[in-house]
Amino acid sequence: MNHFELFDLPVSFAIDAAQLQARYRTLQQTLHPDRFANASERDKRMALQRTSQLNDAYQTLRQPLSRAEYLLELRGLTLQHEQQTLQDPEFLMAQMEWRERLEELDVVAELDAAFADLQQQTHAYQQELEQQLEAEQNEAAADTIRKLKFMHKLAAELELIEDKLNG
Predict the structure, then answer these.
(1) Contact 129, 145 (CB under 8 A)
(2) Mind listing the domains of the chain with CATH numbers?
(3) Mean pLDDT, to the nearest integer, of 4-22?
């Protein structure tokens, strides 16, 4: 059973987050190991295993990037993050420009502008990813996921720089 079936959701990138959370809570109550406290050791292990699978499935579907990757896996495309590099010269140039920009950040105003630019670009990639997944443009979606992962790393780096600037 795939994660979408587990939560009785359509196999789609666009899901109802509230519905996912409600079904998770219901399943969590039903499958929780405490309900099997008086059961056999085998049944206790099974309950623990099912709860672990439930939690993994929930975390995968809850996060847009992991949900997109999972959807591609269901379609037979596995992302090979470190083994496969992005062949988009324009994006590679943008990465270099972002790196230079981060190295030069030294005041909060520049940091705020960088956060705003990053948020805008990330949002554009997220919309692009959603369209690609809906159109089943799987290879293009895989590249967009790689771009979004880079953007998330940049956000984390910006947060570290913010912490240093705020002292």
Answers:
(1) yes
(2) 3-62 (1.10.287.110), 89-165 (1.20.1280.20)
(3) 96
